[in-house]
Amino acid sequence: MSTPVEVTGGPTGLIVAELFGVDQPTFQGEGPSCGCPSLFLRLSTCNLTCNWCDTKWTWDWHQYDPRAVSKRMSVADLLVWALSSPVELVVITGGEPLIQQKKLIPLVEGLLAAGKRIEFETNGTLAPDPALLVDGVRFNVSPKLANSGVVEERRIVPAALEVFAASGQAAFKFVTRTVEELDEIGTLVDRHGLDPVYVMPEGTTPETLIETTRVLADAVAARRWHLTQRLHVLAFPDPRGR
Ligand code: SF4
Questions:
Q1: How would residue 239 be classed by pLDDT, with cut points 50, 70 and 90?
Q2: What residue numbers bound the domain in which 29 lies?
Q3: For residue 168, what is the domain's CATH number?
Q4: Interatomic CA distance for residues 21 and 37, integer angstroms
Q5: Are strands 37-43 and 71-73 parallel, antiparallel or unpaired?
Q6: Is the C-beta atom of 123 inside 6 A of ligand 1?
Q7: Which of 38, 41, 181, 197 shows a CA-CA span of 20 to 30 A to 29?
Q8: Beta strands 226-227 and 71-73: pairing type?
Q9: Is residue 7 part of a domain?
Q10: Is the Cβ atom of 41 under 6 angstroms away from ligand 1?
Q11: Largest CA distance in the chain
């Protein structure tokens, strides 16, 4: 498994992998806002190396040249981009977006001032800056299970999870393959007070998602947890950038 390394380059601006949702409208495909019209800001770099990661171009610099697959963008340019659309929800994802959270604060402030709502997609290993724990910002926290291939000490950071849990602004989403993994989720939920829980099938094809959904559905329902989908994979022939 490759090790993520820091992108080098200019000291200013956010390291951006892709922006989408303005010219070609789309919606949030996962979690509590699944189906909501959304804009997406995908940031580069991650502090984990999940073996099933479907956005490795954001962090795996052994496979990808960071200068070819990412660029620096200023907060001002990102605001112009987001405010060019009437869509209210801006999803900030990655990679792991909270690696760049200090630089995201003025962007979040500008988006909220313009009437946008924000959802962060985060792996839950970095506690959010208090400046991000404000009205209009939600966190879809996705702690990784053993199926990620990442050692537990790196993927589960109790202090960070407990900040999210106490914030009242987070939902906890688990990428899951088997019914047996629900016990692993249950242990994390009990240990760190995680609520609400969303179980999401792992997969990058409609066939895999449907098959895994049917494997998981009864057991998720029995636990009174939420079951979510990857709607963009089901809806679009090429979900990249959708
Ligand atoms: S935390 Fe997310 S972006 Fe990072 S390696 Fe895992 S799946 Fe990929």
A1: confident
A2: 14-235
A3: 3.20.20.70
A4: 8
A5: unpaired
A6: yes
A7: 181
A8: unpaired
A9: no
A10: no
A11: 51
